[in-house]
Specification:
single chain, 433 residues, mainly beta, Immunoglobulin-like, Jelly Rolls, 3 domains, eight-stranded mixed sheet, six-stranded mixed sheet, 2 helices, 31 strands, elongated
Length: 433
């Protein structure tokens, strides 16, 4: 009999304890209401700025009582029913996706939490909760001129704990960090005119990266003109920040400081090159080129065609030396309806066939030419870019450099007048301000 009483007491204690535990999040009243829950993800986080890929992560949804006890839990927001029956009381909702790991590529971590809401007896409560980026997103892009001038480049982003991600030139993924101060290290590699593999580098601190920030880093640099630019800014959809960092290059430019020009407008695919003549097949020349597969500098052979002066590489155009006299010209056709108002042109030359006197001209039809700039007995530095500003207010389809005198080193050690022209690079730009 005593054993039976002990068993009844134990069972009664268990029932009472269970009821008390349930009352941690259920009110004393036995009423019931309905919850209609809508789980959103902030639209600014749905698209990866580089890959344009829609976020597809699963979002875990938890419905909790005021006492932080889990009432319901769903492994993905798609599993949340349209309506949920609940005892009257006070609740809130949490939503999350991913793991807060730093740093890592494509390691998106979202989190969100609703305010406390009340379920009343016989009432319907509509609640919305939005998950937002809980870490800092970093993406990188490189300007077209940088990609043309440098054979290799990367950016390394380091956090305050010395953890880092390296964005190579082919990296399209975004990196994710836990916020705080970040440091960007940029390295740009190129081949010098002498065939040496050289590089430029820059380090910049990015202060105060926060959750829900998208820091988009744009790196602009140009070997041939002026200062490069390394800029950091955030996307328009999230917290606004902007940092601009000067990336000083040793390339020289005669442009006044207050003048700002576009990037070079003449390149393959943006029009077509033309010339008075070009050297024959027997005039192939050797130039250094980077062999990415073997990570070495190799020698390649090119013909000195007109388009070689517009490819941004270590190539050149040479006029046909069999022609007895100058002038010779090199030009660029932007195409019908693509007229440009060129306000600056730049030349890069060598010690052979160096232009000394010339006219820079524009034309609407390629037949009648207007002289926009004229230089006489000009001494150009070899293997460097020299720029000339012109007061041109007209838009032309055709532009050309008409060379009337050239000098060079051929079979002697002193420069003398020659009957051919060699131009390594001819660039043209419009004025921004």
């Amino acid at each position: 009999m005593k054993n039976t009483l002990r068993i009844i007491c134990v069972l009664l204690s268990f029932v009472l304890y269970s009821c008390q535990d349930e009352d941690l999040y259920l009110p004393e009243t036995a009423g019931e209401g309905t919850l209609q829950l809508n789980v959103n993800v902030g639209k600014e986080n749905l698209i990866n700025a580089r890959s344009k890929a829609t976020v597809t992560e699963a979002f875990q949804v938890s419905l909790l009582s005021q006492a932080n006890d889990t009432v319901y839990q769903w492994s993905d927001r798609s599993e949340v029913p349209e309506s949920i029956s609940l005892r009257t009381g006070i609740y809130y909702v949490k939503v999350s996706s991913g793991t807060l790991a730093s740093p890592a590529f494509d390691a998106v971590y979202y989190t969100g939490q609703s305010a406390f809401f009340e379920i009343g007896d016989g009432q319907v409560a509509a609640v919305e909760v939005t998950a937002r980026l809980a870490n800092t997103k970093v993406s990188i892009s490189f300007s077209d001129s940088l990609q043309k001038d440098f054979y290799d480049y990367f950016v390394r982003i380091t956090d305050e704990d010395d953890h880092y991600l390296t964005f190579s030139k082919d990296e399209i993924r975004a990196g994710y960090f836990n916020g705080g101060n970040l440091t960007a290290y940029v390295r740009l590699s190129y081949v010098s005119p002498e065939g040496d593999s050289l590089f430029y580098e820059k380090t910049q601190r990015i202060e105060g990266a926060e959750a829900n920030d998208h820091i988009h880093i744009t790196i602009k640099a140009n070997l041939h003109y002026g200062d490069g630019l390394f800029s950091v800014n955030t996307s328009d959809a999230v917290n606004k920040k902007e940092v601009v960092i000067g990336f000083d290059q040793p390339a020289k430019s005669e442009a006044p400081a207050q003048q700002i020009y576009t990037e070079n407008l003449v390149y393959r695919g943006n029009g077509s090159a033309f010339a008075s003549s070009y050297a024959s097949d027997s005039m192939q020349y050797a130039r250094p080129a980077y062999d990415a597969k073997n990570d070495t500098i190799k020698t390649v052979y090119d013909l000195p065609l007109p388009e070689k002066a517009f490819d941004g590489k270590f190539t050149h155009w040479t006029s046909d030396s069999r022609q007895e006299n100058l002038p010779q010209w090199l030009g660029f056709d932007f195409g019908a309806g693509q007229e440009k108002t060129i306000r600056q042109y730049s030349l890069q030359v060598t010690q052979w066939g160096t232009p000394e006197s010339w006219m820079f001209q524009g034309s609407h039809d390629g037949l009648t030419w207007q002289t926009l700039d004229e230089q006489q007995d000009k001494s150009l530095a070899t293997f460097e870019t020299t720029s000339f500003e012109i007061d041109n207010q007209q838009s032309y389809r055709y532009y050309r450099l008409l060379v009337t005198k050239a000098t060079g080193l051929t079979n002697s050690t002193s420069a003398h007048e020659v009957n051919f022209v060699l131009i390594r690079e001819l660039e043209m730009r419009e004025l921004i301000q």
